[in-house]
Request: fold
Amino acid sequence: MGHQVSDDAASPTRVLVVEPDPAERARLIAACERVAAALARPVIVDSAGDGTTAFAIWAERRPKLVVSEVLLEGLSGLALLRRIVADDGNARGEVRLGARRDPELGTCVVFVSTMARESDRYWGLRQGAVAYLGKPTTDAAIEAAIHRALTEGRRGRQLRP
Reply:
């Protein structure tokens, strides 16, 4: 389901929130909408509760940003990220993980996850996420990661996995 903010004539930014818990999903959607409003950008936020549905939505709509939990039914957040990276890369002739990508192209992935160990963060960033936040976390931290992804794209990636 898509939630749209702003009637601006500009092309809306698409975001996909993937979170199995409905309350947490609503929290992440609200964070995306607040950031878009602060940036004065129209946004359409789609959402899914599992990885398989998320990939189907991603493949159809190609959002600029995916905000996801790692622990998902069907397809994990990391598997979702790998498919996105591979599909984005194939579209531009870049077929390997970690291939250098134009920061303005493709989808950025931000993880907000209960998998919060340093090793989890390391692997999420190593596989291509632009940010990895462990739960519990603040709305301010979530919004900062979303803001960075929407304004800086892949250039805003956390420096070290």
Observations:
- Confidence is low (pLDDT under 50) at residues 4-9, 92-103.
- The helical segments are 22-38, 51-61, 77-91, 118-126, 139-152.
- The chain has one domain: 3-156.
